[in-house]
Amino acid sequence: MVSGICGWTPDQFWNATPTELAAIFAAFADNGSGQFGHAPPGADQLAKLKETFPDAKPTR
User: Considering the entire predicted model, what is its pTM?
Assistant: First the structure.
């Protein structure tokens, strides 16, 4: 979603802070139009994504 809508690269996504990601997902949460309607991923879901797609893990 972030890469397609915001144009982020994998590196930009994996280096984003949880606050930045929460802001992005909150912006696209259900706004009454029914387009998105999903809660942003939690810490466990983000950890699973990082494990599943390790192509650009942060180096910090």
Answer: 0.42
